[in-house]
Amino acid sequence: MESPIKLYEYFWQALNDYASSKGYGVQRNIAVQAGVTEAFISQIMAGTNKASARTQAAIARACGFHTLEDMLQAGKSIRIKSTAPETEHNLIIQVHSQSEKNLLNGSIDDYRGIPLYVSGRLAAGANGMAFDPYEPPASMVVIYKPEIQGSARHNLAALKVGGDSMAPTIPRGAIVVVDLSDKEQIDGRIFVVNVPDGGIDMAAVKRVRRWEKGMGFVLISDNAGYPPDISILEWHRLCVGRVVWMSKDVRQA
User: I need a labelling partner for 147 at 20 to 30 A (CA). Which of 26, 58, 82, 129 fits?
Assistant: First the structure.
C-alpha cells in the first residue's frame, strides 16, 4: 500500500499538471469550486502548505475528477506529444511510482509519440502519397529516438501490418514506423507503397526493385508464397515512405 507521503506527492503533481494544462485563471476557479482561497491553492501548488484528505477530494472534484483516487492516478502519469506536423496528439503513460515518473520526465525529450493508423488508407499529398490526414489515428506508438536515428525529426507514421506477405522479416500483426520524409529510391529496401484497390489507395509493405524489362517497379514479398507484383506507377506516386523501425511479438520466437 502506498504511504500517505507518496499519495500526497501524486496529488501535488496532478494538481500542478492540471493547472499547467489550463493556464491563467485556473487557480481562482479551483478555489471557488473547492471552497478555499486562491492563496491556499497557490501555497499547495508551491509546496508551502498541505491540504487535508477532505480538501484534496474537494479540489479533485473542482478539477473535474470524479474521485480523489482518479486524480492520484493522473499524478502517476506523464504525457508525451507527437511531433507529427499534421496534428498534435497527447499520449498518457502510466508509471508505477513517482521515482519512475521523475526518471521518465528527465528524459522525455528522448522519446517521440507517433500516430498509429490501422486502416492503411492513403491520400494524395504535395509530395506523393501519405496516410489520410482526415482519418484519426487509432492510437500512438512511443519510440526511443536513438532507435530511429536520423528519422527522429522527420514526418513519421506507424502502421499495423495485417498480412503475412513480408514474413518472416515482418510478421502479421507487427507495427512498422514509416518515414514519410524518406522517399529516396534504393533497390531492395523495404518501403510502404501505394496499391490501388477498387478505387481506394491502400498501403502495402514491400521490398522494391526497379523493373529491368521496362518502366515500373517490382514489389517483392519476403514470404515465398506470394509472387512478385509489377507496379507501373511513377515513384512519387508509388512510394509512401521507407520502413525504418518495427516492433513485434516474440513470445513464439
Answer: 129
CA–CA separation, 75 and 12 (whole Å) = 8
pTM above 0.90, yes or no: no
pLDDT tens for 220-248 read 999 999 999 999 999 999 999 999 999 98
Is 171 inside any structural domain?
A: yes
pLDDT in tens, 130-170: 888 778 788 889 888 999 988 988 989 999 999 999 999 99
Which cell is 144 given? Answer: 526511443
61 and 176 together in one domain = no
> How is residue 63 written as a grid cell?
478539477
Torsion, Cα 22 25 27 31, to 10 degrees, reads -120
Beta-ladder partners of 92: 79
Domain hosting residue 61, numbered range: 4-75
Query: Strand 175-179 to strand 128-131: parallel, antiparallel, or no bridges (unpaired)?
Result: unpaired
